[in-house]
Amino acid sequence: MTRSYTLIAPAKINLYLGIVGSRADGFHELVMVLQSIGLADTVTVQEIRGQEIQITCDQPDVPVDETNLAWKAADLMRRNFPEAAAKHGGVAIAIQKRIPMGAGLAGGSADCAAVLVGIDLLWNLGLTQSELQDLASMLGSDIPFCVSGGTAIATGRGEVLDPLPDLGNIYVVLAKYRDLPVSTPWAYKTFRANFGHTYPESPEALDGRKRAMQSGEMMQAIAHKDGKAIGRLLYNDLEKVVLPEYPQVQALRDRFAEIGCLGTMMSGSGSTVFALAESEAAAETICSKMRSAVPDEELELWVTQFNQSGVRLAAT
């Protein structure tokens, strides 16, 4: 009988996304506060005969070839641990999508992280979380966070993580138009084109700006687990370029603010907009009011909450 593991792969939102400036490697230097949420994909990894990597997904829009980050994760493990790959054979990956695509919620990154964790278990590699995160950083900036999850401050290009206090039961309402993705590379490229002239020119100035962001008011609000202050201090530099280009995203943000919530913001590069609430009842009320205010069948809404773990085994 072939062995398999089923894992839960949570989405993430950004509570803070500050673009500090340019890095020597061409990426942006970032300061972000990342938060796992309850909305999650389910990923099953299973041993199969041969050496093939197979992917299936219940969402027809998701690629099931080598362009999928989950495939790249399996291939990375195969290349880094050839003896284990030869012993255990190929891998079948089955993805149940619940996290929307092109949404700024790290759905692809979460699935990728789940494959790394799943193959570690499947092949009895015994890797530590930091070793898994080192592998994850080779595949994408969000993926190391998706391995560990919870609440964290992310610096560098997003791969340098420091855990922050557990923020407890803050609830989240997510809103996204079904066929409205936003390209992350486009968002960062456009930000550089529009605001690159404001970037610090010296490494010292870059470091100074980064330290100022890291020690700002949001960090104080998180330290005190102050949900109202966190909501008030939500910040995302990418809104400066995405909202003017995507008026539907701006309209969702405006509508959440009118309805009333602890705070509202676009997550990552969009196109998801989220609102924070202090209780499940308050979140359900916000969701209901949003559904009435925007009676568009293309608008998808979810109620979820802050989640204190990254990839984890599904309950059996």
Question: Can you lay out the helices and strands and say which pair or pack?
Answer:
Layout (H helix, E strand, L loop, with lengths): L3 E19 L5 E21 L4 E5 L11 H12 L1 H7 L1 E7 L10 H16 L6 H9 L5 H6 L2 E5 L4 E4 L7 E7 L6 H12 L7 H12 L2 H7 L3 H7 L1 E2 L2 H7 L1 H13 L3 E4 L6 E5 L2 H14 L5 E7 L6 E2 L3
Parallel strand pairs: 1-8, 3-4
Antiparallel strand pairs: 1-2, 1-12, 2-4, 2-5, 5-6, 7-10, 7-11, 9-10
Key terms:
single chain, 316 residues, alpha+beta, 8-stranded mixed β-sheet, 4-stranded antiparallel β-sheet, 12 strands
Structural class determined from secondary elements: alpha+beta
Name the helicity range.
25-40%
SS strand fraction: 25-35%
Uncertain spans, ≥5 residues at pLDDT below 50? none
**Count of distinct strands:** 12
- Using only C-alpha atoms, the radius of gyration works out to 20 Å
Order of helices and strands: EEEHHEHHHEEEHHHHEHHEEHEE
The overall average pLDDT, rounded, is: 94
Largest sheet: 8 strands, mixed
Number of helices: 12
Distance between the termini: 18 Å
Report on this structure:
The chain has 316 residues and is an alpha+beta fold. The chain is 39% helix and 28% strand. The protein is built from 12 helices and 12 strands. It has helices spanning 69-80, 82-88, 107-122, 129-137, 143-148, 184-195, 203-214, 217-223, 227-233, 239-245, 247-259, 280-293, and strands spanning 4-22, 28-48, 53-57, 90-96, 151-155, 160-163, 171-177, 235-236, 263-266, 273-277, 299-305, 312-313. Strands 1, 2, 3, 4, 5, 6, 8 and 12 form an 8-stranded mixed sheet that branches. A 4-stranded antiparallel sheet has the order 9-10-7-11, sandwiched between helices. Strand 5 (151-155) and strand 6 form a beta hairpin. Helix 1 runs parallel beside helix 3, helix 8 (217-223) runs antiparallel to helix 9 (227-233) and helix 10 packs across helix 11. It is globular and about 55 Å long. The two termini are 18 Å apart. 46% of the residues are buried.
